């Protein structure tokens, strides 16, 4: 043999275990193989090197001189390989990379992520707030929080809650407008981002006709948490997902004038690649997030702790 020519690695691994235990039976137990399979692999490697590696004695196996020379070399090699894999696995589990849609990141996850890190102090967190849909096969991302209908092939998907929406405004604006007794009263109110597709959907669900966004000045503030800040300042009525603004609703900075929360059958989802479902840091975050959802004081319409499935 020359260069890297060597017996099959599987047979080498079997020899190392048998040489360490001086027992085909115990080597088989370690490797999940039958004694006959271990014996076959030893025969294969002996034929390949052209030397006997074991001698069978009345009291059990003993190594030949050649076997004695190979054993420590191979044990050290396998120990180094195991240490190498252990190190990269430890390094990988030291940092959890999240890709999160901006509103979920700012309004829901950011105020709570510290609790996850308190429970798992050895796991660092990198959170990217982005609308980009990551490709788990290409991007170095462990978990994504996505919004949409799903499903996405190849991913495990846990449905979190519906992207419900309803008009929300500040108490001082409500005082200026006067009582809002009927959804149609909003047709005369200043609306933030009136060209948002949620406005006509909500008015239709409320049975209100006559809304025409083209008659209003165009504005697009982007993400929901930015629009919410404008609403708190009293600049207009926003169309928002109440779950994301529960604190402002609870402390009175915002008010929800109507109970109706419409939706378009879109949900927020916890997603990760199916082959990595049992990676410790992914499992830890999944279990923490789903527990947080269950414990939340707000109703999570459409919440489901079970995965929707993976392709």
UniProtKB/TrEMBL annotation:
- The source's domain of life comes to Bacteria
Per the similarity annotation, which family is this?
Answer: Belongs to the LysR transcriptional regulatory family.
Q: Does the keyword Disulfide bond apply?
A: no
Q: Where is the HTH lysR-type domain?
A: 7-64
Q: What parts of the sequence cross the membrane?
A: none
Q: What's in the keyword line of the UniProt record?
A: DNA-binding, Transcription, Transcription regulation
Q: Which GO terms describe its molecular function?
A: DNA-binding transcription factor activity; sequence-specific DNA binding
* Organism for this UniProt entry: Aurantimonas aggregata
A Gene Ontology biological process term:
DNA-templated transcription
**Protein name (Swiss-Prot/TrEMBL):** LysR family transcriptional regulator
State if Membrane is listed as a keyword: no
């Amino acid at each position: 043999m020359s260069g890297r020519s060597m017996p099959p690695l599987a047979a080498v691994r079997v020899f190392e275990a048998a040489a360490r235990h001086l027992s085909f039976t115990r080597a088989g137990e370690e490797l999940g193989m039958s004694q006959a399979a271990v014996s076959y692999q030893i025969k294969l490697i002996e034929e390949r090197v052209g030397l006997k590696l074991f001698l069978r004695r009345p009291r059990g196996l003993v190594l030949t001189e050649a076997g004695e020379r190979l054993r420590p070399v191979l044990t050290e090699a396998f120990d180094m390989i195991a240490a190498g894999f252990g190190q990269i696995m430890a390094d990988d589990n030291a940092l959890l990379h999240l890709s999160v849609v901006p509103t979920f990141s700012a309004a829901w996850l950011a105020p709570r992520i510290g609790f996850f890190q308190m429970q798992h102090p050895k796991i660092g967190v990198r959170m990217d707030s982005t609308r980009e849909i990551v490709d788990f096969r290409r991007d170095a991302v462990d978990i994504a929080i996505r919004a949409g209908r799903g499903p996405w092939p190849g991913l495990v998907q846990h449905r979190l809650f519906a992207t419900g929406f309803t008009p929300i405004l500040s108490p001082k604006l409500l005082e200026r407008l006067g009582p809002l007794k009927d959804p149609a009263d909003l047709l005369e109110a200043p609306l933030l981002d009136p060209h948002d597709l949620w406005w006509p959907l909500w008015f239709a669900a409320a049975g209100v006709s006559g809304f025409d966004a083209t008659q209003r000045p165009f504005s697009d503030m982007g993400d929901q948490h930015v629009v919410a800040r404008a609403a708190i300042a009293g600049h207009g009525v926003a169309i928002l997902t109440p779950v994301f603004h529960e604190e402002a609703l609870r402390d009175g900075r915002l008010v929800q004038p109507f109970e109706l929360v419409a939706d378009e059958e879109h949900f927020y989802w916890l997603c990760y690649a199916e082959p990595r479902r049992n990676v410790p840091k992914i499992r830890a975050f999944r279990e923490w997030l789903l527990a947080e959802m269950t414990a939340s004081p707000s109703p999570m319409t459409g919440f489901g702790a079970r995965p929707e499935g993976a392709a």
